[in-house]
């Protein structure tokens, strides 16, 4: 297990300068361009959006032609929250520096100069004191401060369950870093573009996310299925071909879990994977620092499309931009895209409490397949199963409000990829195109379900490697 220790103390002034630099380098710009035909397609499509796929083929082709004619990718998602363009980062940093004074050190005992540079805090008491004083001074909201305290307690307890002798230091260090990033974003909110590239400098958000989730995974009771297929995927990507992982979705930590289980054998796949992400993970203050470290195609989930009816059209326009971004990425080749065709996270059966992959949406699967086929580059769709709900389970029911309660645990996890499923091979035996679409969706889902059951027997059933079956060979390459 990799342990990260708290970094050396830094001054308030240097901290604010660093924050200003990060904001200046990574501020996003809002694009005001919009394709009428693309909007029409998005309004009819339910790729990860809403509506029906009936009659979408013509609009789909027009979207691809529009994307091909574009000289550069669409950058900007001002529709998220319908906000104005971000204020100038340099001006904001100058104001912060002026407010902080010229002192080169920060005192947690001086209420007026409390820095909220959380990486400087050396004890749980100091950190919690800093959170409370930040709320009292109005620098963060009371709701955020309460969520931060609750998250710290849950995370600390989970890390302690790992039995690591350095659990107290690990918990304090990782939570201090998270709170530091939250505070930076509260002061100068980061806005995600339709296609967001992981931020690796001057602050490495990817590594931060990996180190935060790592202590929550019981690697002794974690497994990966069909490791050799990940080798095949790597070869195809190196040839310039596209790969789409059709996956179930369990927790906000899925990207980190996937990356950590691939870290010892396929770190290149882990770092280059692009996740189709709902708007909630780029708007929730506690999620944003983790999302900033991933490659994302940002969309509004169809499950939340009509939470606020007045915003539905705006959300569709935003999704159109993301659709064009995806088309451009696929046309360029060597794209590795993860998508959950269910449109959201798995939930347990309300009667039995058993977890299982949520059903795949036929329109989402079919639209993704057609995007891949029309890219002009060879593409492949693979079924991917992930089991990690114990680490950070979602609420039992879908919630409309941002800011869900985080329950965190130390637990075993699992990841498995199934053999590629070719649509045309399957459709050759069927004379009805609609039946072929349905059969293809079921084939992908059935593979994910089969792999998930094997992972469940291995992790929850304590069968370990013996849970393997001919189509799902488990291993632990990190051992």
Automatic annotation (TrEMBL):
GO biological process: phosphatidylglycerol biosynthetic process
Chief location of this protein within or outside the cell: plastid
UniProt protein name: glycerol-3-phosphate 1-O-acyltransferase
Pathway as given in its UniProt record: Lipid metabolism; Phospholipid metabolism; CDP-diacylglycerol biosynthesis; CDP-diacylglycerol from sn-glycerol 3-phosphate: step 1/3
A GO cellular component entry from the record: chloroplast stroma
Keyword Amino-acid biosynthesis applies: no
Gene Ontology molecular-function annotations: glycerol-3-phosphate O-acyltransferase activity
PANTHER family per the UniProt record, alphabetical: GLYCEROL-3-PHOSPHATE ACYLTRANSFERASE, CHLOROPLASTIC
Keyword Secreted carried by entry: no
Family: Belongs to the GPAT/DAPAT family.
InterPro entries: G3P_O-acylTrfase_chlp (IPR016222), G3P_O-acylTrfase_N (IPR023083), GPAT_N_sf (IPR038114), Plipid/glycerol_acylTrfase (IPR002123)
Annotated localization: Plastid, Chloroplast stroma
Ranges of residues in domain Phospholipid/glycerol acyltransferase: 243-389
EC top class named in words: transferase
Listed SMART domains: PlsC (SM00563)
Intervals of motif HXXXXD motif: 249-254
Alphabetical UniProt keywords: Acyltransferase, Chloroplast, Lipid biosynthesis, Lipid metabolism, Phospholipid biosynthesis, Phospholipid metabolism, Plastid, Transferase, Transit peptide
Residues spanning the signal sequence: none
Listed EC numbers: 2.3.1.15
């Amino acid at each position: 297990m990799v342990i990260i220790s708290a970094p050396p103390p830094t001054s308030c002034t240097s901290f604010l300068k660093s924050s200003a630099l990060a904001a200046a380098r990574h501020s996003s710009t809002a694009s005001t361009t919009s394709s009428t035909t693309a909007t029409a397609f998005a309004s009819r499509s339910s790729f990860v959006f809403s509506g029906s796929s009936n009659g979408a083929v013509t609009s789909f082709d027009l979207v691809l032609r529009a994307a091909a004619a574009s000289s550069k990718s669409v950058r900007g998602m001002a529709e998220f929250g319908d906000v104005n363009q971000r204020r100038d980062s340099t001006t904001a940093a100058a104001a912060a520096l002026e407010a902080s004074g010229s002192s080169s050190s920060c005192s947690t005992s001086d209420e007026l100069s409390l820095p909220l540079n959380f990486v400087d805090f050396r004890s749980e008491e100091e950190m919690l004191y800093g959170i409370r004083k930040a709320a009292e001074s109005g620098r963060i909201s009371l709701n955020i401060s309460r969520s931060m305290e609750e998250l710290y307690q849950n995370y600390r307890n989970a890390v302690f369950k790992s039995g690591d002798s350095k659990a107290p230091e690990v918990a304090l260090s990782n939570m201090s870093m998270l709170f530091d990033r939250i505070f930076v974003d509260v002061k100068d909110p980061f806005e995600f573009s339709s296609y967001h590239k992981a931020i690796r400098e001057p602050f490495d958000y990817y590594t931060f996310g990996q180190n935060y989730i790592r202590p929550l995974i019981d690697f002794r009771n974690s497994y990966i299925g069909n490791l050799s297929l990940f080798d095949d995927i790597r070869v195809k990507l190196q040839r310039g071909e596209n790969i789409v992982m059709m996956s179930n979705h369990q927790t906000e930590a899925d990207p980190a879990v996937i990356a950590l289980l691939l870290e010892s054998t396929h770190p290149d796949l882990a770092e280059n994977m692009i996740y189709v992400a709902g708007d909630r993970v780029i708007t929730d203050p506690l999620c944003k620092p983790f999302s900033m470290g991933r490659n994302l195609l940002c969309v509004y989930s169809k499950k939340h499309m009509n939470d606020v009816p007045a915003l539905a059209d705006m959300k569709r326009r935003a999704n159109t931009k993301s659709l064009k971004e995806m088309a451009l990425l696929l046309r360029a080749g060597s794209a590795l895209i993860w998508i959950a065709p269910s449109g959201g996270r798995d939930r347990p059966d309300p009667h039995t409490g058993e977890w299982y992959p949520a059903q795949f949406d036929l329109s989402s699967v079919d639209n993704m397949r057609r995007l891949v086929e029309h890219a002009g580059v060879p593409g492949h769709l693979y079924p991917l199963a992930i089991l990690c709900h114990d680490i950070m389970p979602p609420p039992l029911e879908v919630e409309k409000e941002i800011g869900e309660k985080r329950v965190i645990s130390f637990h075993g996890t699992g990841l498995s990829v199934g053999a590629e499923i070719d649509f045309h091979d399957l459709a050759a035996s069927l004379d009805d195109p609609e039946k072929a679409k349905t059969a293809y969706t079921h084939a992908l889902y059935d593979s994910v379900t089969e792999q998930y059951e094997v992972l469940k027997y291995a992790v929850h059933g304590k069968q370990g490697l013996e849970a393997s079956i001919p189509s799902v060979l488990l291993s632990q390459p990190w051992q």
